[in-house]
Amino acid sequence: MRSIIQFSFAALAAFTDATVIHRRDSGLEVSLASESNTVIKATLKNQGTDALNLLNKGTILDSAAVEKVSVVSASVPVAFEGIRFRVLTSNFSEDAFTTLAAGETKEVTFDVASTHDLTSGGNYKLIAAGAIPFAKAGSTELVGDALAFQSNELSIDVDGAQAATVSRPFSRANKRSDIQSDCTGSRLSATQSALRDCVTLASNAARAATSGSASKFQEYFKTTSSSTRQTVANRLNAVSRECSSSTSGATDYYCSDVYGGCSSNVLAYTLPSQNLVVNCPLYFSDLPHLTSSCHAQDQVTTTIHEFTHAPGVYSPGTQDLGYGYSAASALSANSALNNADTYALYSNAIYVGC
User: Fold this and answer.
1) Where is the Lysine-specific metallo-endopeptidase domain (predicted)?
2) For residue range 197-235, what is the model confidence (pLDDT) as tens digits?
3) Angle at CA 42, nearest 5°, toward 40 and 44?
4) What's the Cα-to-Cα distance from 4 to each of 220, 233, 255, rounded to whole Å?
5) Positive or negative torsion for Cα 86, 90, 95, 97
6) Taking the model in full, what pTM does it have?
7) Separation of alpha carbons 206 and 209, rounded Å
């Protein structure tokens, strides 16, 4: 049952076929290696001739419990239990980026058991893929391009008992109890308005997916195959149905940061494992209800983005493989089909007439 959570007092992730379209001759190389049991080291190398500022938010460089790798066991995807969010793609601070000089490498480590249940132990296969937005060296303004990447496939043998000792910060047991009052007043009305117009935008985009411009669909989803067009339409129709009521459905919808995921530039986030969606303060303060600009962000398409993440709305839920038009456009057809922002961008395009 879905409800907008009001307080009067104080996930399966698909193992992505992530072959990507490289949009630059100078690219990004990403390799994975095992450090110990479930601890993974990712090495990123700038293969180009220019220094780059790579966006950390929501990418493999983020210290938050975002989906850095896809995991499978015996050809079955292991459910992602971390956080997926939509990022405000402007007004970044310097610490939102990692600078890589030409030819330089950067190593990051993370424990995959903190976002996936690996307590059964045994063999798992991991891969990292997506497209990372970037700025020029010394700048925090994203350029109109993105660096697409796909890592090696890493095979690891996991001690399940040891994996069980790793904290999964977004498990239901770790839910914060100091929830502040919200989803009242202007926040409640903004949320309800976004849900109302989400019904129309998602439904119209679904109709366009099946019977609208093939070239427009190709622009966003990199194919015009009938099966992909139907899958996109089915997912968007499911989102439209989910938005049609504030008292029933698959998701719980919060306006308070119940899991502490509202860091800088995060507009909203979803916990797919719980079908829980949270609007962050920036959702209310920095976004218009609807935009009339192509590829711009607003409250309605952010709601569409988040609802595509929730497997209770449509399974499997989408991933965050590329934020913004440039990064989403760098993805392959299979990756675009599984990328939340592609649905938000397509819905915006159909509404605005891009």
Assistant:
1) 203-348
2) 999 999 999 999 999 999 999 999 999 999 999 999 999
3) 175
4) 31, 25, 8
5) positive
6) 0.86
7) 5
Is 50 exceeded by the pLDDT of residue 115?
A: yes
Phi–psi pair at 175, nearest 5 degrees: -60, 135
Active site residues: 306
Side chain identity at 280, as an amino acid letter?
C
pLDDT in tens, 133-192: 999 888 999 987 789 899 999 999 999 999 999 998 876 544 432 223 568 899 999 999
* Pairing label, strands 276-279, 252-254: parallel
Looking at residue 174, what is its pLDDT?
A: 47
Binding-site residue set: 305, 309, 320
Count CB neighbours of 200 within 10 A. 14
Q: Three-class SS of residue 11?
A: coil
- Quickly list H helices, 117-249: 160-163, 185-211, 214-221, 226-243
Distances (CA, A) of 157 to 125, 144, 160: 9, 40, 9
CA 20/CA 17 separation, integer angstroms: 9
- In degrees to the nearest 10, what's the CA dihedral of 266, 270, 271, 276? 130
